């Protein structure tokens, strides 16, 4: 007869490396999940919902959900705050967490800012032992049981950015084994994340090209990196090509609706050996801008002047053609 201790040890040992951080292919629409310094950097109040169904067709494959809200005081992009709820399921394990967020953004010069963020939270881990396959189906210890553990958590990160580029890094599960009075902190492992990208803008063609990369590391798992090449047309429609090292290739596409709502869908195709057992992964993302920063009088004047200059250039080009 398998004892409950053996089952818990095996399940939590697997969950330690597989479930402490979810996988989201479009890491830029999930940047707040990976780095608390994002809060307040966009001069808007924004709500995000991310859903990732990994390895469709594979029994008990990971299913991840996260919802968050973030913004800055008076939309000034200086004092950021937010909240996050996560729900992650894989096999017999369910993880649920809630986090609060604070970030402060420093203006380094006219074009560049630096954000520093911290994100304390609480996580509950549950194992549904009654769904497990055991040698003795009549084991009363396992039948109908749920193992539950909890942990206090802290994530922290930095975000260096301008209109042209961004570089950010974070450490998740920073407390780790430092907390002794909870039942799961001793199992938390540090997660290191780094994300960088650059924006190439082609104003005449109303097109923006954005290559980006994310690197993740958790000991003893090998370093994993994900690249994405994203193209945005007319500041509305966009498509991204994704490659995740030794794992999957994918595509993510979406559109902005009335400059308020960003709706996206992503699909990954496995390139590892597990591709024989699944039909790919699906991802749905939704972002909604709740409040925007009101433009100053100078910004309104500049916008008006630029529109007048653009109109004059068009008239001159038409005269030359005639």
Largest sheet: 14 strands, antiparallel, barrel
DSSP strand content: over 45%
> What's the N-to-C terminus distance?
91 Å
CATH architecture: Beta Barrel
Instruction: Tell me the domain tally.
Output: 1
- The side-by-side strand order for the widest beta sheet comes to 1-2-3-4-5-6-7-8-10-11-12-13-14-15
Global morphology:
globular
Question: Summary?
Answer:
With 322 residues, the protein is mostly beta strands.
Walk me through this protein's architecture.
With about 325 residues, the protein is mainly β. It has a single domain, classed as Porin (Beta Barrel), CATH 2.40.160. It contains three helices and 15 strands. The radius of gyration is 23 Å and the shape is globular.
Q: What is the topological layout?
A:
Blueprint: H1 4-18, H2 31-34, E1 44-53, E2 63-72, E3 79-90, E4 93-107, E5 113-128, E6 146-161, E7 165-172, E8 191-198, E9 200-202, E10 207-218, E11 221-233, E12 237-244, E13 248-257, E14 261-270, E15 281-292, H3 297-321
Keywords:
322 residues, mainly beta, 15 strands
């Amino acid at each position: 007869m398998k004892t409950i201790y053996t089952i818990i040890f095996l399940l939590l040992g697997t969950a330690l490396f597989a479930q402490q951080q979810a996988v989201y292919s479009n890491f830029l629409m999930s940047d707040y999940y990976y780095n608390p310094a994002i809060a307040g950097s966009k001069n808007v109040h924004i709500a995000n919902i991310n859903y990732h169904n990994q390895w469709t067709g594979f029994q008990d494959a990971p299913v991840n959900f996260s919802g968050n809200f973030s913004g800055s005081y008076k939309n000034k992009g200086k004092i950021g705050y937010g909240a996050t709820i996560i729900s992650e399921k894989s096999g017999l394990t369910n993880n649920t967490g809630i986090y609060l967020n604070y970030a402060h953004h420093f203006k380094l010069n006219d074009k560049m800012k630096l954000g520093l963020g911290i994100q304390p939270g609480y996580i509950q881990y549950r194992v549904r032992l009654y769904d497990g396959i055991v040698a003795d189906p009549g084991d009363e210890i396992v039948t109908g049981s749920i193992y539950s553990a909890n942990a206090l958590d802290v994530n922290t990160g930095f975000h260096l950015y301008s209109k042209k580029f961004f570089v950010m890094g974070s450490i998740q599960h920073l407390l780790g084994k430092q907390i002794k009075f909870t039942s799961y902190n001793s199992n938390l492992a540090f997660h290191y994340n780094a994300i960088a990208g650059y924006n190439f803008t082609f104003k005449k063609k109303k097109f923006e090209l954005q290559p980006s990369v994310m690197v993740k590391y958790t000991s003893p798992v090998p370093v994993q990196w994900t690249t994405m090449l994203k193209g945005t047309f007319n500041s509305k429609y966009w498509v991204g090509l994704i490659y995740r090292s030794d794992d999957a290739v994918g595509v993510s596409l979406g559109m902005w609706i009335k400059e308020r709502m960003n709706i996206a869908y992503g699909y990954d195709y496995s390139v590892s050996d597990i591709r024989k057992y699944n039909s790919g992964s699906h991802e749905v993302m939704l972002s909604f801008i709740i409040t925007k920063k009101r433009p100053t009088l100078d910004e309104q004047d500049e916008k008006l002047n630029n529109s007048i200059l653009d109109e004059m250039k068009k008239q001159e080009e038409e005269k030359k053609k005639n």
